[in-house]
Amino acid sequence: MHPVRTPHVVVVMGVAGTGKTTIGPLLATRLGVPYAEGDDFHPAANIAKMSAGVPLTDEDRWPWLDAIGAWAHEQAGLGGVVSSSALKRAYRDRLRAAAPGVVFVHLTGDRALIEDRMAHRQGHFMPTALLDSQFATLQPLEPDEAGVVVDVSGSPEEITARAVNALRDLERFEPRAARSSR
User: Cα–Cα distance between 175 and 179 in angstroms, integer?
Assistant: First the structure.
């Protein structure tokens, strides 16, 4: 399979447990661009809070989002994939302010499936107890936001293929609202 090659920076977003850390690198490989793990941009204080089961505040998230935005800005025109929950429109707006051309891949799925995946992953600081706060905070992509919604059922390879196909459709500049109304 040949890489698709894209100059876009793609932000793989969604609540914890949707597979951002799994799908992000696979998507980057398929797109022929570098991958950056969003969790690596968190300050130690954020990781400590989440590890203790304490949801982050907006004030906690701003420096993290700014660091991701700076990376995305550096990759503008070159392409890249970065993971970030990007749960609120304000968070995505902040990323777009730093890197106006970013495109979002919103990984979404059944809550029970996501919780099951979270319960079985190892070595991650985010406890399943925070999943409810993630869903409560989530503001899905709006029609004026450049992005696609991808279901997380199936294997990582199937999810990645759906994401690549959805991004190809998006690159044809068909408005998202028109795609949603089919």
Answer: 7
- Residue 178 has a pLDDT of 34
Instruction: Give the Å distances, CA to CA, from 61 to 22, 35, 123, 140.
Output: 22, 20, 22, 18
Cβ-contact 106, 148 below 8 angstroms: yes
| pLDDT digits 0-9 by tens, 60-102 | 999 999 999 999 999 999 999 999 999 999 999 999 999 999 9
Mean pLDDT over the full length of the chain: 86
What is the rounded CA–CA span in Å between residue 89 and residue 87? 7
25: CB partners within 8 A, 6+ apart: 35, 81
* Cβ-contact 30, 101 below 8 angstroms: no
**How many Cβ atoms sit within 10 Å of the Cβ of residue 182?**
4
